[in-house]
Design a protein that fits this description.
- The complex is a heterodimer of chains A (122) and B (816).
- Chain A has 5 helices and no strands.
- Chain A is mainly α and 122 residues long.
- In chain A, helix 1 runs antiparallel to helix 2 and helix 1 crosses helix 3.
- Chain A is elongated.
- The relative contact order of chain A is 0.19.
- Chain B is globular and about 95 Å long.
- In chain B, strands 1-28-2-3-7-8-9-10-18-19-21 form an 11-stranded mixed beta sheet, with helices on one face.
- Chain B has 23 helices and 28 strands.
- Helices cover 32% and strands 19% of the residues of chain B.
- Among the domains of chain B are: 29 residues; 107 residues, no CATH class.
- In chain B, helix 3 packs across helix 9 and helix 18 crosses helix 21.
- The chains are: A mainly alpha (122), B alpha+beta (816).
Chain lengths: 122, 816
């Protein structure tokens, strides 16, 4: 049950973040993960993981797709600027940065929920 | 309230707020630039961050609306991403050029104008403060202001139309569509103004026309005497193969100088700002129909500058009414700078001359409020320069102006004393009609149009080569040149008398020029403008003595010049310098005790054909040997420079001549040793040093000229990853026609055949049409440039999208 909820959260976070990003700047991902973290209740840790993976996976696929579509033309140069060994490490770094923001956003959302809408479980 | 909450609830609230604060802190930290690191969240965001700059094809809209256009503009892109712009109204054409340049090169246009205006610190921070101060103190901004304010009405209109096009592009940008470098440095483009075209043009003039050695000559004269100065730094090293070579063919009465000049004595101890690279130069030549294999006139040009990404140049074709021109634009300036129309072609090389003079100013006191002029103290004009620095307080620099120009060095900047300063007089402080010349030559149909257009060209002085489909060829050394007495301008001048200022200029009609000379070709390579019978005194930091002779040798020996011959001449790697120095160096090695490997290298050098070809190892041996020798001879100069007494390094031509003709010179003795060295000793020592270095190189693999030279094209921000590296190509800076050095060389190469049935042209440049490092067009021509492949340049007669080379077409219209 709980793991199903987590997968659901990952999916909703990714979709909502993707939609928000078509209009708003990059930090809209934090809104997405916060809202999903707030709406779907799970524990703190699993919220963080769901937020991290939701945004992380989204950013990973968006970056990887761009990289493949453009033959790493810019990725390889930017990876070198950051002293990273290759394009894939830059894609992973991108996913991690997004993931951390998403994770904390989701954690904040779930903590807000558990504060203002306490359940018996807490 | 808090005490009403349960302990558990309070805990949860605190937990929430702490996480909220951490989250907000992370988002903020990833949204701002920290040191050199771009804002990571913003920058790495795959939706709008740098990823959005990666392109798989052409990322341009098919239709674009620009308010203010009078009609439609058709832009056809060919397979090299060269835009061919067709407009119904001339005004629209210039709007479209602005739009097109911005589409591909906005970042560099703005960055270079910021550099020219001394505004880099706004973007980069304190790192560039000294550079920014210098731009303002040397009169860059002063000159640009004079240029812009005094421009003719039409040129100013064109700049405004161009700005309209650039701003139409900028106004549609969002963070997602900002050019890559804006994201990397985290700033945004500002509105383009018509003034910026003037600034950018001055940036170019500064690169080409600001070389001088007044401090250095003054110092040398006072330390070593006039006789040695004349011997080591003669005004003319070799008159052979001057640009215009027509002894006693000067059919005018030279004007006479009214004022006598007064210099000051040195030495002057100042930490001088660096000068433009002495390798900035170019080659150009034109072949008459009589010497051309096809019977059509031919024209070639290659301009030697520091190699940069994004490229300095941008190919475009402009078409409207009587304008139909193709060639190299300087993004930021609304014209074709060099190229061809449907009837003529023109090319440029720098026409060096002493166009900067320095005047020693005597201030009344350290307030710099007045200075001595014609026997009395007169007030200076003070201008407070506001230099904004990124995330720091604004820096205010007070620059003092005199009758001669801005005082660049004074007590507040690298000064010598509390009451002295040095005012800089630069030809580019003056207004100029240069844009009128481009406007004219972009529509030129024949020889008369070329001559008429050039009459407006004052700066930066250029050797402008010409060829037409009618079969005319010509060369004109054109610029605004101060009239100088013998030796005037070589030394620091006395700034206490107005009569020392520039007052007269050589009339245009007296500038060296010739048309259809009997020999069947004209050429220039930054050498002396005219033969020894030219009646005016001419001096410069350096006149080329090798490339010009080699080009003319090759052209003289070829009576049926083909396009392939011209390509070969562009890529000619022969070194006259090696021809004229190596025999002496080898001669001095006779009788020296050498090991077997040393003998081997010596034999290879003796057999060397003196071509700086890609695979040559002997070229590496010679290059190292000669440069160690050179350093050994002129160690006195280096020591003096280290002590802030500026001296200039003698040319290779002069160095080689002195070794042969004046081996007794004291410079050949190394002062650090007790014994007295001779030229022979220095040559032997340099040889041993070379052997040591070669052994080190051997440890890293096979020795070849291209790998040793290791040519690269660096990004303007000096970020390694954004440049192209390890380019294997022949040639060398300095004495070789193919002047490709490590990071300096041909910034473009073009060959034009002036076929009356339709002009044909071939070319390439070291970079690509796009300024975006995320585009395959960013460096698509680099390989051709390095290997000698030429692209045929597409020249359209009309906006015909069915041409097989057209890959994309775009329409600009006004907003409905």
């Amino acid at each position: 049950m709980n793991s199903f909820k987590v997968i659901l959260k990952i999916g909703f976070t990714a979709v909502l973040a993707f939609l928000l990003q078509t209009i708003f700047p990059w930090w809209s991902i934090v809104i997405a993960s916060f809202l999903i973290g707030f709406i779907i209740s799970t524990g703190g840790t699993s919220s963080f993981i769901a937020g991290f993976l939701g945004i992380g996976i989204l950013w990973f696929f968006m970056a990887a797709l761009t990289d493949i579509k453009t033959d790493s033309i810019l990725t390889s140069r930017v990876a070198e600027i950051f002293s990273l060994p290759n394009s894939w490490s830059l894609i992973l770094a991108t996913a991690c940065i997004g993931g951390v923001v998403g994770g904390f956003g989701a954690l904040t959302g779930s903590y807000l929920r558990s504060w203002i809408m306490p359940t018996n479980m807490d | 309230m808090l005490f009403l909450l349960s302990n558990k609830c309070r805990m949860k609230m605190v937990r929430f707020f702490i996480t909220l604060i951490i989250t907000i802190a992370i988002v903020i930290a990833l949204d701002v630039k920290i040191g050199p690191i771009p804002p990571l969240g913003k920058f790495l965001d795959p939706a709008s961050g740098f990823w959005a700059n990666a392109e798989s094809g052409i990322a341009l809209p098919k239709n674009f609306e620009i308010p203010g256009l009078s009609g439609k503009v058709k832009i056809l892109y060919d397979d090299m991403l060269v835009p061919h712009i067709f407009a119904d109204h001339e005004d629209d054409l210039f709007v479209a050029i602005g739009y097109v340049h911005a589409c591909h090169r906005l970042w560099q246009m703005e960055f270079q104008t910021h550099a020219a205006a001394g505004r880099l610190s706004e973007i980069v921070g304190e790192l560039t403060l000294d550079m920014d101060r210098w731009q303002r103190r040397k009169g860059m901004t002063f000159g640009a202001k004079n240029f812009i304010e005094n421009m003719d009405v039409r040129s100013r209109q064109l700049n405004e139309l161009y700005a309209l096009g650039v701003n139409a592009y900028i106004s549609r940008l969002s963070y997602k569509t900002y050019p890559f470098e804006y994201k990397l440095l985290d700033y945004r483009p500002e509105k383009w103004t018509s003034d910026k075209s003037g600034l950018l043009y001055k940036f170019m003039a500064d690169m080409l026309n600001s070389s001088e050695r007044d401090f250095e000559n003054t110092n040398f004269k006072s330390i070593y005497g006039k006789e040695l100065l004349d011997l080591i730094y003669p005004d003319v090293e070799n008159y052979k193969d001057a640009v215009v070579d027509q002894p006693n063919g000067w059919k005018f009465d030279p004007i006479v100088k009214h004022n006598k000049q007064k210099n000051i004595n040195g030495p002057v101890s100042l930490n001088l700002q660096p000068k433009p690279s002495p390798s900035n130069g170019s080659n150009n030549w034109a072949i008459a129909p009589t010497k051309s294999a096809t019977g059509n006139a031919l024209l070639c040009n290659d301009m030697h500058l520091k190699l940069y990404m994004p490229s300095l140049w941008f190919y475009n074709q402009l078409n409207c009414g009587d304008i139909n021109v193709f060639g190299h634009s300087l993004p930021g300036v609304p014209f074709v700078i060099t190229g061809f129309t449907d009837s003529i072609a023109w090319g440029m090389t720098n026409a060096q001359r002493d166009l900067v003079d320095w005047y020693k100013i005597e201030f009344k006191d350290e307030t710099r409020s007045s200075y001595l002029l014609n026997g009395e103290y007169v007030p200076t004009k003070k201008v407070v320069e506001e230099i904004k620095i990124r995330s720091q307080e604004t820096f205010y620099d007070t620059v003092v102006y005199t009758e001669f120009g801005p005082v660049s060095y004074d007590p507040t900047y690298r000064g010598e004393s509390q009451k002295a300063g040095y005012a800089r007089r630069w030809i580019d402080h003056d207004p100029s009609d240069a844009f009128k010349m481009f406007y004219g030559i972009n529509r030129a149909k024949g020889f008369d149009d070329y001559m008429e257009a050039l009459n407006y060209f004052t700066s930066p002085a250029q050797n402008v080569v010409f060829a037409s489909s009618k079969g005319d060829i010509a060369h004109r050394v054109q610029g605004k040149y101060p009239l100088n007495d013998y030796e005037e301008g070589k030394f620091l001048k006395d700034g206490t008398s107005s009569s020392n200022n520039w007052t007269q200029y050589i009339p245009n009609a007296h500038n060296p020029f010739w048309k259809n000379p009997e020999r069947g070709f004209v050429s220039s390579a930054n050498q002396h403008p005219a033969d020894s019978t030219y009646p005016y005194y001419v001096t410069s930091t350096k006149y080329e003595t090798y490339r010009n002779r080699r080009i003319n040798d090759v052209l003289r020996s070829d009576d049926s010049v083909t396009i392939d011959d011209l390509k070969n001449l562009h890529f000619d790697n022969y070194s006259l310098k090696a021809e004229e120095s190596l025999p002496l160096m080898l001669e001095c090695m006779k009788g020296a005790a050498l090991s077997a490997p040393e003998m081997n290298i010596l034999e290879k050098l003796a057999r060397w054909d003196r071509f700086y070809n890609k695979g040559s190892d002997a070229a590496v041996y010679y290059e190292i040997w000669y440069s160690r020798l050179y350093d050994g001879i002129w160690d006195e100069i280096r020591t003096s420079l280290e002590n802030d007494i500026a001296l200039r390094y003698p040319t290779d031509y002069s160095t080689i001549k002195l070794m042969k003709e004046h081996p007794e010179l004291d410079f050949f003795d190394d002062k650090l040793t007790d014994s007295t060295e001779t030229v022979r000793d220095l040559i032997l020592r340099a040889f041993k040093e070379m052997i040591g270095e070669v052994e080190m190189l051997r440890g890293r693999g096979d020795i070849s000229w291209a790998t040793y030279k290791d040519t690269y094209i660096g990004h303007q921000l000096r970020i390694g990853a954004l440049g192209d590296h390890n380019i294997l190509t022949g040639g060398n800076r300095g004495a070789v026609v193919n002047a490709t050095g490590a990071n300096h060389g041909p910034s473009q190469r073009i060959i034009v055949e002036l076929d009356p049935k339709g002009i044909k042209a071939w070319g390439h440049y070291p970079g690509g049409q796009s300024g975006n490092p995320g585009s395959k067009y960013y460096d698509h021509m680099v390989e051709a440039w390095a290997t000698g492949h030429y692209y045929e340049l597409l020249f359209l007669t009309g906006p015909d999208p069915s041409n097989p080379r057209i890959i994309f077409s775009q329409t600009l219209t006004s907003t409905r």
